[in-house]
Amino acid sequence: MRPTARSGRRSGGARSIELGPLTRSIGYMLRRAQITAVAGFLEALKEVELRPTQFAVLLIIRENPGIRQTEFCDALGIQKANFVPLLNHLEWRGLAERRTGTSDRRSCALYLTPRGQELLRRACVLHDAHEARLTARIGKRGREVLLSLLRKLHDPL
Amino acid sequence: MRPTARSGRRSGGARSIELGPLTRSIGYMLRRAQITAVAGFLEALKEVELRPTQFAVLLIIRENPGIRQTEFCDALGIQKANFVPLLNHLEWRGLAERRTGTSDRRSCALYLTPRGQELLRRACVLHDAHEARLTARIGKRGREVLLSLLRKLHDPL
DNA sequence: TATTGTTATACTCTATAACTATA
DNA sequence: TATAGTTATAGAGTATAACAATA
Questions:
Q1: Out of B75, B91, B98, B107, which could bridge A17 as a Cys pair, Cβ 3.0 to 4.6 Å?
Q2: In the structure, how far is the CA atom of residue B103 from the C1' atom of nucleotide D9, in angstroms?
C-alpha cells in the first residue's frame, strides 16, 4: 500500500518504484495523507461503526440542533439528494431524527436522539485518540502549522 | 478536541453553521483541502482531459518504463482489478501501451507512447501551474513545511 | 412560480472473488 | 500449486433531473 520514494533495485530483485515529481505535488501528497488518515479513522471508530461523513453529520447536528437539511447541505457542500439516504441510515440506527418544521411544513429540523448523543460522546473520545496518534507523528506544533496551512489551502482568502 | 468559540446567526437571517470540533480535526481539514485541490486540478488539466489518477499513472510509467501491472499496483496501493479499466482507457486514448513480457508471458510491461509522452509534457506544465497557484496561498516555505508534514503523516517512520 | 425534501439514475472509485493462461 | 492479468460484481461517494407537498 505504501509507495516508496527511492529509485534503483532492491537486493531481492524487486523494483523500487520511482514516484518522480509526485512526491513534490501538494495534491498527491494530500491524497496519500488523507487515505492514511481515513484508514486510521475507520480503525479507531470501528467500535461505534461510524464512517467519517456520518461522524461529521452527527457532530454538526449536535452543534446546530434544529438545522434543516438544505442548510446543512449548503454549508457542507453535500448534494441534498445524497443527504437523504445518509440521514435515513442515521435515523434507522436511532441516532438522529427529523422533525417536521412548525413554521414551514416542507422542511425538517434535525436533532440527535439521546442514543445519538451518547454514541457521539463515545465517538468523540475515539476520534480524539485517533487525532492524538496523528499528532504524535508531527508534534503538537506541527499539528497547529498543518491545520493553519490546510485552512489556507481551502479558504479563498 | 475543543469546540470553536463562535456561534449564532448572521445578520441576513441565514444561520451560520457551527462546525465545532471539525475545524480542529486533521482528518476533516485534510479532506476539505483535498477537495479544493482536486477541483483545482480538474480545472487546470481540463485541456488534456486527465484526472488525478490518470495523470499519476502516466507519470509513474514515464519514471518506470517497462513496469509491470502488479508492480505498479503494489507500489501505489491500487487493486489490480481496478487498474485494468484505468489502463484500458489510457491505451484506448493512445497514451500508454502494454507489451507482453518476453521472459514471463503472463505479465505486461507498460510504456508511454510518443503521444503519451507529448501529452504528459503538456500536462506537467499545467500541473506545475496548478501547484504554483496552491503554493501562492501558503508561500514557498509553507509548501515545504506542508509537504514534510504530509510525508510524516503517511510514512510509518 | 419557487423551495424542501425526495426519488431515480448515472458515473467514478474502491473492494472481493473467481476465472485464464501461463509459470 | 502459484502468479499475472482479467472479468464480474457490489458498495460507497458524487452529480443531475424531475417530482410532490408546501410556500
A1: B75
A2: 33
Nearest alpha-carbon partner for A65 in A90, A99, A31, A27:
A99
Helix (H) or strand (E) holding B98: strand B96-100
- N-to-C CA span, chain B: 25
Size of interface A-B (CB pairs under 8 A): 184
**B6: which 3 cell numbers?**
463562535
Residues A16 and A9 sit within 8 Å (Cβ to Cβ):
yes
Kindly report the average pLDDT of chain B as a whole number.
Answer: 89
The pTM for the full model equals: 0.89
- Banded pLDDT at B101 (limits 50, 70, 90): confident
Cβ atoms of A67 and B15 within 8 Å: the answer is yes
SS3 label, residue A68: strand
Question: Which bases of chain D are under 7 A from a protein CB atom?
Answer: 3-9, 12-18, 21-23
How near does any CA of chain B get to the CA of A73, in Å? Answer: 11
CA distances (Å), B50 to each of A125, B33, B118, in order? 41, 20, 13
Span A134-156, average pLDDT: 94
